[in-house]
Write a structure and sequence with these properties.
The chain is α+β, with helices and mostly antiparallel strands. It has 8 helices and 5 strands; from the N terminus they run αααββααβαβαβα. The model has no long low-confidence stretch (mean pLDDT 82).
Amino acid sequence: MKKHIRYIFLATIIFQACVPARKFEEVSEKQEVCAAELKTLKSLKTELQTENTELESLNKQLNELSKRLLEDTTILGKSLRMKEKQYDKIDELNQRIQDQLEMLQKGQSIEKQRLMADLEKRKSDLLVVEDQLRAFEIELNNKKIQLEDMSVELQKREQRVNELEEIIANKDAIVKALKDKVAQALLGFRDKGLSVVEKDGKVYISMDAKLLFASGSTKVDSEGIKALKELAKVLEDQQDLEILVEGHTDTDKMRSNSHPTDNWELSVLRATSVVKIMLENSKMDPTTVSASGRSQYIPIDAGVKSKNRRIEVVLIPRLDELFEIINN
């Protein structure tokens, strides 16, 4: 009995030396950073969707305004032609009056006075028509300027929307290609509790705990190491990618006086073990990889506990180009 106690005490000391408190703090900090980045990405997606909706709405409004401006221009053009016809008629009438005036100069004074009054009225009406024509011309020019300004703004908006859509489409294509490449590399593990899915612009690689660990253990077994090596080979050449390794447990309580003592520690240590194996067996950039423990709080099937015991490797594309366009 005493011999067993000495062995347990010795194992506890060795394990505690392998997992110092400082490491737990670093993992917790990385978890918070990952959570913040995830929140930022979700917020960015919402902002991009909102901005895209607003741009589409503005595009529709500008098109409607352009249509109205064209209709107004047509109406003003018709009015201008009508006024020009009136102006020609007034000129003709004025000439007739001038002819009559010459006749009146020969002695028809009374008629002359009447015609003079009529002539003055016609001249006054002509001035009013000319003022109206000038006003129409000014308004027509203003409408043309507004239409040109709106067209330029519309082109800029359309260009920005097209750039955003092109970048998003490229990112989606890259994510899909990456998902297919990962799925092909891990095809031999599909029937052993491994799945690869694409969701919300990210790739999720889910591995059942039984593929990687013995019950309650944080050490990856040989079959799990083989799968992780295959995955690391696929990811080591990927650029503009953040890799988040998450450990998940079920709701069963830990029954151990040594580490791990609870599901939080178990999930963190398992995620850390996976990260170490991937980095040790590939040329992956350690600055792009982080590990976090999610304990029991993000289950995927409340009725089947074994499905909740898993490691998820989340591949998150960087969105630097989108940030540049949005900030400009």
